[in-house]
Amino acid sequence: MSRLNRRRKQAAARGVHVIRWPNGGPWDVFVETETLLGPRGVTRTKREAVNFAYCIAQHGRGPALIASA
Prior knowledge:
Layout: H1 3-13, E1 16-20, E2 27-31, H2 46-59, H3 63-68
Antiparallel strand pairs: 1-2
Helix pairs in contact: 1-2
């Protein structure tokens, strides 16, 4: 299993999912405890979305907030 798929599955096990919007739309991150509000204004590649989801699952917040802490 690739590292990307392993990270995606680890994030999903913690309630953070990577989804693709219809018609080839952008990748997005969905957290089970939050309402899905739509794309966050940034078109992500699958790799960026998976890494973002993994970061949220591990630390409870995104990479920008981790760097500023």
